[in-house]
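Retro notes (design track)

What went well: tokenization of the new backbones is finally stable.
What didn't: we kept losing track of which sequence belonged to which structure.
Fix going forward: every design gets posted as structure first, then sequence, in one message. First example under the new rule, 176 residues:
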């Protein structure tokens, strides 16, 4: 796994090439200058993202399953600020360790959310979807996923149905 270090070069101007040929001899760019321009453009391309807020690197594991009974992720809807948001306190990246992972809604007073069925837990890639078998339980207030233990990390979505509506949350799971 490679590690990328932050490089603060996104605001550095690129070297300027001559705007017109010199002495009618055509374009002559020194190889070192051309290499510098190519290097700068490659570095600059790293300053853009494919989608706002998108990440292809999972956060560090924050919740590790050590037994089937202990592998329950609490799902909370926080309406302290508008709009309401889904949270998984302390479980932004779950290490399954071969156990089924169970997501369970922890309702607050006046809330009646359930998991979307099907699709309460959905994986963002075809590989992720193929690596897990998931289904709703307990009148859609729990969702269970069993992984194939391939060791990869996958981003998934948690989608709830209820009022007021909440946006999908996109945490990670490590399938080992």
């Amino acid at each position: 796994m490679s590690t990328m270090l932050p490089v603060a070069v996104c605001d550095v101007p690129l070297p300027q090439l001559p705007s017109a040929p010199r002495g009618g001899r055509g374009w002559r760019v020194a190889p070192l200058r051309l290499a510098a321009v190519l290097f700068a453009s490659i570095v600059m391309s790293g300053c853009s993202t494919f989608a706002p807020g998108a990440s292809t690197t999972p956060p560090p594991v924050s919740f590790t399953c050590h037994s089937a009974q202990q592998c329950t992720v609490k799902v909370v809807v926080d309406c302290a600020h508008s709009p309401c948001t889904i949270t998984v306190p302390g479980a932004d990246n779950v290490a399954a360790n071969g156990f089924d992972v169970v997501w369970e809604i922890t309702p607050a007073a006046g809330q009646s959310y359930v998991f979307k069925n099907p699709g309460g837990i959905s994986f963002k890639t075809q590989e992720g979807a193929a690596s897990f078998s998931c289904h709703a339980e307990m009148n859609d207030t729990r969702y269970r996923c069993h992984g194939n233990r391939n060791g990869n990390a996958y981003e998934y979505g948690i989608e709830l149905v209820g009022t007021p509506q909440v946006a999908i949350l996109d945490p990670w799971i490590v399938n080992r």
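Added context from the reviewer: The two ends are 17 Å apart (CA to CA).
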